[in-house]
């Protein structure tokens, strides 16, 4: 696994930005000392390949019975394609909502009720979008055995949502791991580390 290399490059290329002193504002209104733009990763071949290899190994370990890899549109699609290629498995992808023309499909690709599907997204914040993709897949007769992602904040909301949905979740990288590496590297001060840790414990209360 290339965890340290991946985290270092994500920060070096400003794909993940940490700014404890000048927080970012999310669309939800939440203030955050971290901003991730994982869609940029498709422009970095070596990084892209490391992530695909590690995701493939993770899924093979956590979901050895998987028969199909699914991508959550749009950001999860390229990574699902790369992982499916490495595992030599079929692939599907799930739109946020059904098409309003043609056959009105929400899920593209073929699967049966006997297949065991793992869905991939790039980033998990609360888990809402990927869990909606799980519901859509199961509504169409699919059997989703789990979800994986490149990065997760591991916020309390996400833990609760996955537990309620009874969906197994196996991320490649997490905020606590990122924070630990940044603290050990000396890139952030002790005070900044505490700020980042406090946000993670209760992000909606953070100012």
From TrEMBL:
Binding-site list for orotate: 125
Gene3D superfamilies: 3.40.50.2020
GO biological process terms held by the UniProt record: 'de novo' UMP biosynthetic process; pyrimidine nucleobase biosynthetic process
Keywords: Glycosyltransferase, Magnesium, Pyrimidine biosynthesis, Transferase
Cofactor: Mg(2+)
Annotated binding of 5-phospho-alpha-D-ribose 1-diphosphate, by residue: 95, 99, 101, 121-129
Function: Catalyzes the transfer of a ribosyl phosphate group from 5-phosphoribose 1-diphosphate to orotate, leading to the formation of orotidine monophosphate (OMP).
Name of the gene this protein is made from: pyrE
Reaction catalysed by this enzyme: orotidine 5'-phosphate + diphosphate = orotate + 5-phospho-alpha-D-ribose 1-diphosphate
UniProt-listed Enzyme Commission number(s): 2.4.2.10
Biochemical pathway: Pyrimidine metabolism; UMP biosynthesis via de novo pathway; UMP from orotate: step 1/2
Name of this protein: Orotate phosphoribosyltransferase
Any one GO molecular function term: magnesium ion binding
The protein's assembly and partners: Homodimer.
First-level EC class: transferase
Stored InterPro entries: OPRT, Or_phspho_trans_dom, PRTase-like, PRTase_dom
Similarity comment: family membership: Belongs to the purine/pyrimidine phosphoribosyltransferase family. PyrE subfamily.
Record-annotated Phosphoribosyltransferase domain positions: 65-147
